[in-house]
Design a protein that fits this description.
The complex is a heterodimer of chains A (262) and B (197). In chain A, 64% of the residues lie in helices and 3% in strands. By secondary structure, chain A is mainly alpha-helical. In chain A, helix 4 (72-96) crosses helix 10 (193-210), helix 7 packs across helix 12 and helix 9 packs across helix 10 (193-210). Chain B has a five-stranded antiparallel sheet. In chain B, strand 1 and strand 2 (123-130) form a beta hairpin. The chains are: A mainly alpha (262), B alpha+beta (197).
């Protein structure tokens, strides 16, 4: 029943957002413009955002403030291990996006880091010259297929997302995440559910600690913190979908031009 | 060549030379701005004093009025001259407080300019890196420099790890306006309140 529900949701989103497998970069860029992503559930999103802020104040912020005081090698080791686990989702998405070369590189990286790098704690692959690791997920793959983001969503605990990205994330629980499969989905003798959920929790704390000052600063200096977070999240997603290091903003100069021509 | 022509040629040559001497390369401009800010931040003075000195740098190097109107989006077309004046004043106060307060949190930041990309006659993106510390990873910062007046380049945006601050601000203002039926007075009040606190 659950699988059927996911299938129906996925089909609905694909139809609703008019999948176009032949989309080029420009179309993908246009579809993922942060300003064009509708906030259809704004009232509910703001309530969830307030809940997440309260939760952050009670759980994530205090834990992250302790975590960020840990010695740098430990923090980077934890970050590396989490990245290593995430490559189990990145690799199938490299394949889905037709980037077989990156899929090969990331598979090599995973094997080297898991073995020589002691379960990913040391990023040996980078030391020996592998290119910088870039995460991919099922939301990005759907976007590459031309699926638009749909409405903006704020999820309890998990934070900002879109209808497309939330729907796509269910693929992780349907066999799309090997780490989930060996910890939660299948009863193996090596791992338990706790391993999966603790890795997810640590990932959240690691992110909060890395962005500790930036988040504090942004909250303090924002006129509308909710809107700032939404904008930053959607800009970040747009960049990740396009796999670009260039400044996306420079691709739309119309507003600046109008100001100059006055 | 007559004396008049010689004098004219000398004047033209002098003017051309003078202009080329005065032109500032965007990367040099960013590095010198960063160095000035770093000097202030490493001084043993109060946070308020640091903020005051940073505001002076911001007024000289940032196109505050341009960013203000960019942040307003299409709403700027609906404002009359009085509203524009009021908005520019309120935005400048808000911007300076927000900008200096954000920067004043850092002590002795090390920013190294490492590249520049000329986008057009009017724009150059200057790339730099804020060195990491034990508490903060390395941060990539791009500066969008408006170079129409080569003698007086101005910063129009800061792009931190690919995320544009001007764009974020524009979407923040848009959200405030949308939540209040496009009433510009609500934005004025919000800006005033921020600057007062």
């Amino acid at each position: 029943m659950f699988k059927k529900l996911i299938f129906i949701s996925l089909s609905a989103i694909l139809i609703a957002f008019n999948v176009n497998a032949g989309s080029d970069g420009e179309l993908i860029l246009k579809k993922n413009q942060p300003a064009d992503v509708k906030d259809c559930f704004e009232k509910l999103n703001r309530v969830t955002f307030a809940f997440n802020q309260a939760l952050d104040g009670v759980v994530f912020k205090p834990v992250a403030s302790v975590y960020k005081k840990l010695p740098s090698p430990i923090k980077s080791g934890v970050g590396n291990s989490l990245d290593n686990l995430s490559s189990l989702v990145t690799i199938p998405n490299n394949i889905l996006q037709g980037d077989l070369k990156k899929a090969g590189i990331n598979t090599g990286r995973f094997i080297i880091n898991t073995t020589v790098g002691i379960l990913g704690f040391i990023d040996v692959a980078q030391h020996i010259g592998f290119s910088e690791y870039e995460k991919e997920d099922y939301g990005q793959s759907l976007a590459k297929l031309g699926v638009g983001p749909g409405c903006y969503l704020v999820l309890p605990v998990l934070g900002p997302s879109t209808v497309r990205d939330t729907t796509a994330s269910f693929v992780n629980f349907m066999g799309g995440d090997a780490w989930y499969n060996v910890t939660v989905k299948n009863d193996t003798q090596y791992f338990t559910d706790i391993d999966y959920y603790s890795s997810r929790l640590t990932s959240g704390i690691d992110f909060r600690a890395k962005n500790y000052d930036s988040i504090e600063n942004l909250e303090k200096n924002s006129l509308d913190f909710y809107a700032s977070v939404k904008s930053l999240y959607l800009q970040d997603r747009q960049q990740k979908i396009l796999n670009t290091n260039t400044v996306v903003d420079t691709q739309d100069d119309s507003d600046w031009e109008e100001i100059e021509n006055k | 060549m007559s004396i008049k022509k010689k004098v004219l040629a000398l004047i033209i040559l002098f003017t051309l030379n003078f202009n080329s001497i005065q032109a500032i390369e965007p990367d040099v401009f960013v590095q010198s701005t960063v160095n000035r800010a770093s000097q202030i931040l490493s001084k043993n003075i109060s946070k308020d004093e640091k903020m005051k000195q940073l505001e002076i740098i911001a007024k000289e190097t940032v196109d505050i009025i341009g960013i203000g109107f960019y942040s307003l989006g299409s709403k700027r077309k609906e404002l009359d001259n009085n509203q524009k004046k009021k908005y520019s004043k309120l935005f400048e106060e808000y911007f300076l407080k927000s900008f200096s307060s954000r920067l004043a949190e850092y002590t002795n930041p090390e920013i190294e300019v490492n590249n520049k990309e000329v986008l057009s006659e009017n724009y150059t993106i200057v790339s730099s890196v804020l060195s990491g510390t034990s508490e903060r990873p390395e941060v990539k910062i791009d500066w969008r420099v408006y170079t129409k007046d080569t003698k007086n380049p101005l910063i129009r945006d800061l792009i931190i790890e690919g995320l544009s601050l001007a764009r974020t601000q524009k979407e923040e203002f848009s959200s405030i306006l949308n939540s209040n039926d496009g009433d510009i007075n609500v934005l004025f009040e919000t800006l005033e309140e921020f600057s007062k606190n």
